[in-house]
Design a protein that fits this description.
Blueprint: H1 2-11, E1 23-26, E2 42-45, H2 49-57, E3 61-63, E4 70-76, H3 81-93, E5 95-104, H4 109-117, E6 126-128, E7 131-137, E8 151-152, E9 158-159, H5 171-179, E10 187-191, H6 197-203, E11 210-215, H7 218-227, E12 233-237, E13 249-254, H8 266-279, E14 280-291, H9 297-303, E15 306-313, E16 316-322, H10 324-336
Parallel strand pairs: 1-2, 1-4, 2-3, 4-5, 10-11, 10-13, 11-12, 13-14
Antiparallel strand pairs: 5-7, 6-7, 8-9, 14-16, 15-16
Length: about 350
């Protein structure tokens, strides 16, 4: 709804954009309509690889971190409060004019509006489509303490606002890490590696000569580089669902995301399973943890010849799946064989 609120603000005079200078857009998503903005003067800051690539393909200058100074900035609120505050602080620090904040009620825009009013003069918000858009003068904003700062967990891992499980180790990942065997095969990948927790545990097992951390969130991958300093680790900024390795892996570990927005999206985890099968060797093994209520067992049955539920604990299931190539070969033979008519 960014486009609707932005157009309304521009049309009724509640908001004016500068005639010159760069306009930054923090956190725009792939499907966002930015046609109200002059494309040649827009810089989109988007560290998530799928959204980053989609916006770049549309012709926008797209970067993972803000570059230069801006005449104005638009901040699209994320779900995480601290990440939203960090975006607003980053925009204010590098903007000479107005910082515009847009978000849905479900993204906490009402709470963010109240918080901003305590720090700066805020214009009357534009309300439309279960969301709000409001503007503040960057020069007047006192937001330095909102700036993104690394978080060090008790276990020593470093995270940052907005990344998955920023405040602590995810219980599903902890379950998978504890269940890994003492020895793993040579070439391993961690799909959706986040800030590197599973990869760090995999590298503590015998047998690993290489592990690829495949992660779509550039900010999370930067944290992983801090947390995983072993020379056997390689860092891949990529959408795991579309990733294609140079050579098949012997094992893949993953705790796949299941939210594309606030609503659960099982198709995302199913796409991770399909990507794992494509990238495993014929005798390769997938270790996967997921919330028990998600319908992943059927996707595993369709893709792998051997599936074992290793642990079912609390709200999680840990699966070990093997022989993806055997399952695919069986499916291919079934498709190519003609139907047989049975007679007595």
């Amino acid at each position: 709804m960014l486009a609707t609120r932005l157009r309304r603000a521009l049309e009724n005079g509640a908001l004016t954009l500068p005639e010159t200078g760069i306009i930054a857009v923090f956190g725009a998503r792939a499907g966002d309509d930015l046609s109200a903005l002059p494309m040649e003067r827009v810089q989109v800051i988007q560290p998530m690889r799928p959204d980053h690539d989609a916006l770049a393909a549309r012709g926008f200058e797209t970067v993972v971190a803000p570059k230069g100074r801006f005449a104005a900035a638009i901040v699209c609120l994320p779900r995480a409060r601290d990440a939203g505050r960090a975006r607003i602080a980053a925009a204010a620090a590098q903007t000479d004019g107005t910082v515009i904040v847009d978000g849905q009620k479900s993204d906490g825009v009402d709470a963010m509006l109240r918080a901003c009013r305590k720090r700066a003069a805020v214009a009357e918000p534009v309300v439309k489509g279960h969301g709000k858009l409001f503007a503040l003068a960057a020069a007047q904003a006192e937001l330095a303490d909102w700036a993104a700062a690394p978080v060090t967990l008790p276990e020593g891992f470093v995270t940052c606002p907005g990344v998955f499980s920023a405040d602590g180790i995810d219980p599903g990942s902890a379950l998978l890490a504890a269940a890994l065997p003492r020895e793993l095969p040579a070439r391993v990948a961690d799909f959706g590696a986040g800030w590197g927790y599973l990869a760090a545990h995999a590298l503590a097992r015998d047998g690993v000569t290489q592990i690829d951390l495949v992660e779509a969130d550039h900010d999370a991958l930067d944290c992983a580089r801090h947390n995983v300093t072993d020379c056997r680790a390689r860092f891949r900024w990529a959408d795991a669902t579309a990733f294609k390795a140079e050579a098949p892996y012997d094992a893949i570990l993953m705790n796949p995301p299941f939210h594309a927005s606030r609503a659960p999206d099982p198709a995302l985890g199913q796409a991770f399973i399909a990507a794992a099968a494509r990238n495993l060797a014929r005798d390769g093994v997938l270790w996967m943890v997921a919330n028990r209520h998600l319908p992943y067992r059927a996707a595993l049955d369709d893709t792998f010849a051997e599936i074992e539920t290793v642990v079912a604990q609390g709200g999680y299931c840990l699966y070990r799946a093997a022989r993806p190539a055997a399952r695919r070969r069986h499916a291919d033979r079934s498709r190519t064989q003609p139907d047989r008519i049975r007679s007595r």
